[in-house]
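Observation: inputs received (chain + adenosine-5'-triphosphate).
Thought: call the complex predictor directly.
Action: predict_structure
Action Input:
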Amino acid sequence: MLITFEGIDGAGKSTQIQELVHALSARSIEAVTLREPGGTAVAEKIRQILLESSHEISPIGELLLFSASRAELVQEVIVPALANGKTVILDRFFDSTTAYQGYGRGIDLELLRSIIAISTCGITPDITFYLDLEPEEAMKRKFSKTSIPLAFEGDELDRMERSGLEFYRNVRQGYLDIMHIKSERFVWINALDPVAVIHSRIIALLDERFLQNQSSYDERNAMGTSKSKKERFL
Ligand SMILES: Nc1ncnc2c1ncn2[C@@H]1O[C@H](COP(=O)(O)OP(=O)(O)OP(=O)(O)O)[C@@H](O)[C@H]1O
Ligand SMILES: [Mg+2]
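Observation:
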C-alpha cells in the first residue's frame, strides 16, 4: 500500500506522518517512511542541490532534478518495498511536481505528465492526504509568529521556500485543482484542525478503506507493482 502526504511547506505533513507511523506500529504494521526529494544516497545529494543551494536553478532544471531524485527512489526503494507487500508512506510524491513545477513555476502540465510517468514507473498512490493550508498560515507556523511576514525570505528558509507568497498561492491552487481531478484518491484535510483531530480522521479513513483487509490488499498491490515493472520495459 502506498500512502502519500501532500501540502505546502509547513502544512503539517511530517507531523502527521510521525503520528501515523506510531499508530501503525502499535498495530504491528511496520511502515517504510520516505521523503521526497531524498531516500537514497544519490537522491539525498540531489536534495542538497535543490534545497540548500544558493544558486539559481531554472524551472526545467529544477523539474529534472526532482524527477531524477524520484526515479532513484522509486526504482531502488519503493518498487521493491511494494513488491514485498510493505506499507510505504511518502512525504511528497509526484503531485508536488504538478503543484510546484506546474502551477508554481508555470511548466506545461502535459509535459509534466510525461516526465512523471517516466520517473514513477507508473506507480500511483492508493491514497493521498492533502493537508490544505493558506500560505500565510504556513508562514506563521514556520516562524512561530502571530504576524504575517511580507514574503518567504530569510536564511532560515530553503531554496524552494524563498520563492514568495504568490508562488505558494499558485501551488495551493494547483493542489486544489488536482484534488478535484483525482477525487478518488485525494482526501482533503483542513490543516488548521488540531494535530490529534487530523490524525484520528486519517486513521479512520485508512481503517475504512484498507487496514481491516491489510493482507489481501497487499497481495493485490504486490501483483500490481510487478505488472508496472514489466510494463516499464515494453
Ligand atoms: N495541525 C496543526 N496545528 C498547528 N500546528 C501544527 C499542526 N501540524 C503541524 N503543526 C506545526 O507546524 C509546523 C510545521 O509542521 P510540519 O513540519 O509537520 O509541516 P510540513 O508540512 O512537514 O512542512 P515542510 O514541507 O516544510 O517539511 C511545526 O512547527 C508543527 O509543530
Ligand atoms: Mg516536513
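Thought: report the result.
Final Answer: The radius of gyration is 17 Å. The CA atoms of residues 2 and 126 lie 5 Å apart.
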